[in-house]
Amino acid sequence: IRDTDPQRFDLAAVVSACATAYADIFRERRIELAIDARNAEILGSGELVAQMIDKLIDNAVGFSAAGSTITITLEDRGSELELAVANPGPALPDEMRERLFDSLVSVRKGPHDDGRPHLGLGLHIVALIADFHGGSVTADNLPDRSGAVFRVRFPKRRLG
Q: What is the mean pLDDT of the chain?
């Protein structure tokens, strides 16, 4: 990540392409996309953002049941763009919310443990990629605690 040369790219185009691809890959889930950002050009790496989205979608699929809807949104928040991935499933444990983005932390237990090894690196990589872009990532429960939402904020930078 550190050796990546930042370039201008359209965040909305990357998010849209990823959502389309994941709708084809995860046919047992419904992927909904909503983009409300007119100018989503930022400085960074579209490839790294695609990797970030991959980690977030893998997490959403791992914690949601077949037939559920995973929602991806990109919104203009004034000085920043906010990418969010929300999925139904278990609420995030309050004691783990601050640690979810640490290396080697995983909360996959019980019915959401799919038997695959989870080293707890996916959300850590998300945090590293957000940091590379000068942004941040947070995890929250949905208001009714019916699932979780992960938000990545990217600052808008003057590109000149």
A: 86
